[in-house]
Specification:
There is one protein chain. The chain has a single domain, classed as Metal-dependent hydrolases (TIM Barrel), CATH 3.20.20. It is 43% helix and 17% strand. It contains nine helices and eight strands. The longest helix has 18 residues.
């Protein structure tokens, strides 16, 4: 199994990082993709500790839409910062998470779009996959991918909770979809129907920890070991064994991120 998206470098894990990593390995995880905020020194330092504890871990580096306002004066600085950090980070395999979030609007939408654009261009330049965060911004997300990615950028829509129409649009553009613990929630009926339509060769699993712990851990801090619950839920939806689902999603991770 692989947790394709987690925030192990966050402060929520600083106090018991060795134990969290130990539980992940004991649960059968081969590796995880840790998301780092570009320019965040504290996260970079914790990522170095993670690398010593679990050398198989890989990282993605990017500017989240919530932080886009930091680059309002010159969005290109966001791409330059990401480029420099990727070059300095041997475990870097992707750019992100990046994208648009019109639910919270922590940054002006125009600035979010500009920061997203420059990072997609950078991904095309570096030939690296991207990790996309999109919330209530489907049309603009797809438009920017088309305009800046030009069909050459691959990646994943992480923690997918969108409509079946967005899922089809993402798949049509060659992207993967990653499901998190929300798929186990009682009220996530529409999401489970959408998850059923995702081909097994385009599916990934994640925790987005420390957020969104799956049933039966809902309400607690999430962690990579709990991705096993996501695997079980998706296996049931696709009517395959958990072992088969884990094998397929692990293969997908390797194909996309070339770890």
């Amino acid at each position: 199994m692989i947790d394709s998206h987690c925030h192990l470098a966050g402060a929520e894990f600083a106090a018991d990082l060795p134990e969290v990593v130990g539980r992940a390995i004991e649960a059968g995880l081969e590796r995880a993709m840790v998301i780092l905020a570009a320019g965040d020194t504290q996260e970079s330092e914790q990522a170095a500790i993670i690398d010593r504890l679990w050398p198989a871990v890989r990282v993605a580096i990017g500017v989240h839409p919530h932080s886009a306002a930091d680059y309002a004066a010159d969005p290109q600085v966001a791409a330059d910062r990401v480029r420099a950090q990727v070059r300095a980070t041997p475990a870097a395999r992707a750019l992100g998470e990046m994208g648009l979030d019109y639910h919270y609007d922590f940054a002006p939408r125009e600035i979010q779009q500009q920061v997203f654009r420059v990072q997609v261009r950078l991904a095309r330049e570096l030939d690296l996959p991207i990790v996309i965060h999109t919330r209530e911004a489907d049309a603009d997300t797809l438009a920017i991918l088309d305009e800046e990615g030009q069909g050459a950028v691959r990646g994943v829509f992480h923690c997918f909770t969108g409509s079946a129409a967005l899922a089809r649009a993402a798949l049509d553009r060659g992207f993967h979809l990653s499901l998190a613990g929300i798929v186990t929630f009682n009220r996530a009926l529409d999401l489970r129907e959408t998850a059923r339509m995702v081909p097994l060769d385009r599916l990934l699993t994640e925790t987005d920890s420390p957020f969104l712990a799956p049933v039966p851990y809902r309400g607690k801090r999430n962690e990579p070991a709990y991705v096993a619950r996501v695997v079980e839920a998706l296996a049931a939806l696709h009517e395959v064994s958990s072992a088969t689902l884990a094998e397929r999603t692990t293969s997908n991770f390797h194909s996309l991120f070339r770890p």
